[in-house]
Amino acid sequence: MPTFESARSYFNASCTQLNSTNPSNTDSQLEKANYEIANHWSEISTSYSQTGNQVAALEALQKAVEVYRLLHAQRPKIFEGKLARELLGLSKDLAGNGRLEEAFSTSQESGMLYRHIIGQRTESTRAQKDMQSLGYVNEISRGVLDTRAAALTEQTQLQGYLGLFGPSMLLKYVRNSFELSK
């Protein structure tokens, strides 16, 4: 099982390796090392969680989230999903350790990132759906207009029939109807 000491030695070795690299390759190597460090902390957190050490799991996951935040700041498109996933896990661990307010704010941040990711992926399909929706709206509008036209025609015909009968004729009809039913 990985330990904090193994993570520290891994981190120190990565930093030593980065310090001896050429400046042109530093950014990509730094990104790779940081990703490996974040992933390592995440794996340590999982190991601690599986053994029941929730406090150590929480600490390790917090370190992973710190590194993922740095990576996300450098390359949001690449690391947004990973940060969202780790934040969601962190919110669960925080809640499991009784830190509910922090868990809530962390889960909100994770949700915001997931909504952003979903928004980016659906942006192109949203335009297609909007066009389809406009087609449906046009069909519905035509149906509503047809229904209104039919209702107006019925109303006009009914008014015409009622116009044939004057108020006195209508009153006599109603009286006769009630007398017949008695």
Can you characterise this structure?
The protein is mainly α and 182 residues long. The chain has 2 domains: 4-130, Serine Threonine Protein Phosphatase 5, Tetratricopeptide repeat, CATH 1.25.40; 144-181. The chain contains 6 helices and no strands. Helix 1 (4-19) packs antiparallel against helix 2 (23-51). The longest helix has 65 residues, at 100-164.
Outline of this structure?
With 182 residues, the chain is an all-alpha fold. It has helices spanning 4-19, 23-51, 54-74, 76-96, 100-164, 167-181.
Task: Provide tags for this entry.
182 residues; mainly alpha; Serine Threonine Protein Phosphatase 5, Tetratricopeptide repeat; 2 domains; 92% helix; 0% strand; TPR-like_helical_dom_sf
Largest sheet: none
Tally of structural domains:
2
Return the structural class.
mainly alpha
Low-confidence stretches: 17-24
Q: Beta-strand percentage?
A: under 5%
What oligomeric state best describes the polypeptide chains here? single chain
Helix content: over 70%
What is the name of the CATH topology of the largest domain? Answer: Serine Threonine Protein Phosphatase 5, Tetratricopeptide repeat
Radius of gyration over C-alpha positions, nearest whole angstrom: 35 Å
Secondary-structure blueprint:
Elements lengths: L3 H16 L3 H29 L2 H21 L1 H21 L3 H65 L2 H15 L1
Helix pairs in contact: 1-2, 2-3, 3-4, 4-5
